[in-house]
């Protein structure tokens, strides 16, 4: 006859083993007469414990219904693979492919097998028209929409309509084009601005003697834009030499007119500026002296001359008092480069009793390419 306590311990151990679904070995000190439990126990859901999973070196997708073995997918699975595809049989141990969002549909709740199908979403109702889940439709020829589980989203088929050409277009607007669904941008014609060139007077030469600069602003160009212009000038040499009156030597000089307003060089000279020498040699005129007044150009024009410059030429004015014209020979160096410069060519000077600053402030009269400094009355 067995020990009562030992029988109860054996029954309790067997019950625990059944619940856990694992094999258990009795302790010799507790149940010497108990038979070792090594058999596999089946649960009510069709799962068998302990788990016995085949070894497969494939991509794990999920676990089976029993939560025991991994569900894998291999390239050679085919119809006999661990997961079912659309329309194939499925069960708790053979689920549908989760990567394609397939679900296993059963005919009744008591069935243990079914077939794989796509999940059904809610339809969309737009302007009294119903569209099924996943359906793509057109609201109009410019708008395409897609229904997704009772909601729909739309996108434009004419994205260029949302890109306004504002900034490069005058009054842009969208218009319908016959034979085309998408509207197109149109612009008003740009108004044609009539260019009326304006040119200011040349400023007074920056130096009373020697090299100087004169400036003005002019819009007489194809762009009709105001641009600054600069020309070289010289009212008179700082050391007046070799100057004769511009009239004939036979002309009678009246008393009190020994000093002439306009004087001209006796010999031909070349323009010298910043290490450059003009190709042409000329006899420039200068403003002489006036008794009790100031001698300034009354009539002049702008002359463009070609200058021959060395590589080291700076094109900067020389030291204070440097002459703009000098009796030099034409250099014969073939490495000289050509540069063009504008220079004031004095035609006539006159004497005024006002300071030079006041004279230049008055509005001059322009006669074609000749610039006459005459105030308007």
Describe the structure.
With 377 residues, this protein is mainly β. Among the domains are: 30 residues, no CATH class; 33 residues; 35 residues, no CATH class; 122 residues, Ribbon (Cystine Knot Cytokines, subunit B). Helix content is 6%, strand content 34%. The radius of gyration is 54 Å and the shape is elongated.
Q: What is the molecular shape?
A: elongated
Which CATH architecture of the domain at 212-238 and 259-353 is right? Ribbon
Name of the CATH first level of the domain at 212-238 and 259-353: Mainly Beta
How many β-strands, per DSSP? 26
Structural class: mainly beta
Measured as a percent range, the helix fraction is under 10%
Q: In a few lines, what is going on in this structure?
A:
The protein has 377 residues and is mainly beta.
Which helices and strands occur, and which strands form pairs?
Layout: H1 4-20, E1 41-42, E2 48-49, E3 59-63, E4 70-73, E5 89-91, E6 103-105, E7 113-117, E8 124-126, E9 129-131, E10 136-140, E11 143-148, E12 151-156, E13 170-175, E14 184-188, E15 212-218, E16 227-233, E17 243-245, E18 262-265, E19 270-273, E20 276-278, E21 285-287, E22 294-309, E23 325-326, E24 337-352, H2 356-361, E25 365-367, E26 370-372
Antiparallel strand pairs: 1-2, 3-4, 5-7, 6-7, 8-9, 10-11, 11-12, 13-14, 15-16, 17-18, 18-21, 19-20, 19-23, 20-22, 22-24, 22-26, 25-26
């Amino acid at each position: 006859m067995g020990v009562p306590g030992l029988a109860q311990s054996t029954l309790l151990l067997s019950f625990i083993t059944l619940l856990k679904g694992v094999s258990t070995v009795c302790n010799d000190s507790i149940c010497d007469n108990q038979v070792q439990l090594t058999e596999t126990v089946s649960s009510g859901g069709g799962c068998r414990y302990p788990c016995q999973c085949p070894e497969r070196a494939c991509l794990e997708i999920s676990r089976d219904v029993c939560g025991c073995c991994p569900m894998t997918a291999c390239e050679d699975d085919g119809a006999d693979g661990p997961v079912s595809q659309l329309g194939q049989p499925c069960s708790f141990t053979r689920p549908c492919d989760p990567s394609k969002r397939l679900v296993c549909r059963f005919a009744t709740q008591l069935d243990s097998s079914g077939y794989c199908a796509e999940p059904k979403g809610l339809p969309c109702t737009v302007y009294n028209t119903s569209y099924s889940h996943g359906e793509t439709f057109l609201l109009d020829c410019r708008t395409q929409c897609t229904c997704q589980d009772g909601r729909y989203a739309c996108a434009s088929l004419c994205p260029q309509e949302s890109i306004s050409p504002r900034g490069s277009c005058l009054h842009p607007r969208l218009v319908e084009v016959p034979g085309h669904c998408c509207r197109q941008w149109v612009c008003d014609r740009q108004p044609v601005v009539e260019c009326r060139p304006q040119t200011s007077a040349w400023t007074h030469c920056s130096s009373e003697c020697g090299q100087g600069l004169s400036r003005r602003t002019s819009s007489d160009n194809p762009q009709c834009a105001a641009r600054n212009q600069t020309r070289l000038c010289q009212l008179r040499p700082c050391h007046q030499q070799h100057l004769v009156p511009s009239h004939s030597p036979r002309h009678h000089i009246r008393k009190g007119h020994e000093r002439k307003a306009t004087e001209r060089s006796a010999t031909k000279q070349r323009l010298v500026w910043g290490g450059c020498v003009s190709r042409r040699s000329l006899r420039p005129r200068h403003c002489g002296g006036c008794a009790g007044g100031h001698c300034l150009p009354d009539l002049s024009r702008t002359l463009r001359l070609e200058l021959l410059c060395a590589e080291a030429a700076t094109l900067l004015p020389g030291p204070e008092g440097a002459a703009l014209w000098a009796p030099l020979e034409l250099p014969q160096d073939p490495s000289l480069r050509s540069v063009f410069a504008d220079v004031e060519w004095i035609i006539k000077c006159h004497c005024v009793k006002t300071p030079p600053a006041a004279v230049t402030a008055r509005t001059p009269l322009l006669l074609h390419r000749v610039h006459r400094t005459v105030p308007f009355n």
